[in-house]
Structures are given as structure tokens and as C-alpha cells.
């Protein structure tokens, strides 16, 4: 759920936050229902839920490659990401709204600001995913190591196996 009022668009089971023209803006988000996609494309049925979330990271200022490693994305201020584990804790009205949003019959922007805030408050009682922590963990492998190699900070040589005879 967007914390900043970004509008949700739905298209073939995918949720897009922001307009098409904003695809390269910081925080543009796509949430894919991978379970549905696997069923439709490959006729593959899986148990449980499968969701993939992508968020564009585009800092406002240009960062030199050497300093890029020090600026992992901060998405927690833009989105609330939670695994719904127990909807019985929700008030009946908020629970109904959450269910309708999940079923794609209601868009968050069609609710008043009051109810969007209420949903966020009650979703915070669930298993909240720290998007900043996940981004920082992925940053290490995807950005820090390649940037260090490219800037000559470290040289990444393949490890050679030692055979004892």
C-alpha cells in the first residue's frame, strides 16, 4: 500500500503504483501475482501465495559510482508492505475494505484519507516487511561488489581450487 498517495492501477493481475509516464521515477512500484501468472502462462499450479515486488530506485541527484554504494534505496517511507496473517484483528469495516482491495474490486484511492490511514494502522499489526532492510541486503551483492570492482577498490579474482595429491 502506498503511504504517499500514489495511485494504484490494475492490469492483468499486476498492481502498478503511479502512472505509466512515471515508470522511471523513484518509487514506481509493480506488484505481480506470480501464482496467477504461472497458472495463466505455464498452466503451472502452485500451493500458497507467490508475489514479486519491484520498485524503481532513481535518486534525485546523480551519484558518482564510488559513492553509489553508500546510498541504498529507502522505500519504507513510500510503501507499507505486510503479509496479512490475521484479519480478525481488523475492525469490520477496515477488514472489508482490505478484502475488497485484495480482490481488486476496490482501489485505495477510492477511499477517504481517513480509511487509508486506518488500513495502514491496522496492517501494521500484521507481519510487516522492512523494505529498507531487504533493499540494503540486496544492495550488497547487486551494487556494492560490482561498484567496488568497477572503481578499482577491489579486484575480484576467481578463487582457484587447491587440489591435494
Detailed description of the structure:
- Helices cover 33% and strands 13% of the residues.
- The chain has 165 residues and is α+β, with helices and mostly antiparallel strands.
- The chain has one domain.
- α3 crosses α4.
- The chain is globular.
The best one-word shape is: globular
Strand order of the largest sheet: 1-2-3-4
Helicity range of the residues?
25-40%
For the largest beta-sheet, the strand count, sense and barrel status come to: 4 strands, antiparallel
Number of helices: 5
Count of β-strands? 6
Topology:
Elements: E1 8-11, E2 14-17, E3 29-33, H1 34-42, E4 51-55, H2 65-68, E5 82-83, H3 92-102, H4 113-123, E6 127-128, H5 131-150
Antiparallel strand pairs: 1-2, 2-3, 3-4, 5-6
Pick out its properties:
165 residues, two-stranded antiparallel ribbon
Quick recap of the structure?
The chain has 165 residues and is an alpha+beta fold. The protein contains 5 helices and 6 strands; from the N terminus they run E-E-E-H-E-H-E-H-H-E-H.
Amino acid at each position: 500500500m502506498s503511504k504517499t498517495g500514489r495511485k494504484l492501477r490494475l492490469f492483468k493481475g499486476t498492481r502498478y503504483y503511479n502512472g505509466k509516464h512515471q515508470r522511471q521515477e523513484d518509487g514506481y512500484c509493480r506488484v505481480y501475482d506470480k501464482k496467477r501468472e504461472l497458472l495463466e502462462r505455464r498452466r503451472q499450479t502452485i500451493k500458497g501465495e507467490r508475489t514479486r515486488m519491484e520498485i524503481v530506485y532513481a535518486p534525485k541527484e546523480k551519484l558518482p559510482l564510488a559513492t553509489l554504494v553508500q546510498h541504498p534505496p529507502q522505500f519504507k517511507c513510500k510503501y507499507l508492505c505486510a503479509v496479512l496473517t490475521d484479519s480478525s484483528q481488523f475492525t469490520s469495516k477496515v477488514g472489508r475494505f482490505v478484502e475488497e482491495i485484495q480482490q481488486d474490486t476496490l482501489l485505495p484511492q477510492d477511499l477517504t484519507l481517513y480509511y487509508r490511514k486506518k488500513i495502514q494502522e491496522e496492517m501494521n499489526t500484521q507481519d510487516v516487511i522492512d523494505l529498507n532492510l531487504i533493499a540494503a541486503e540486496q544492495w550488497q551483492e547487486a551494487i556494492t561488489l560490482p561498484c567496488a570492482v568497477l572503481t578499482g577498490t577491489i579486484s575480484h579474482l576467481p578463487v582457484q581450487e587447491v587440489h591435494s595429491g
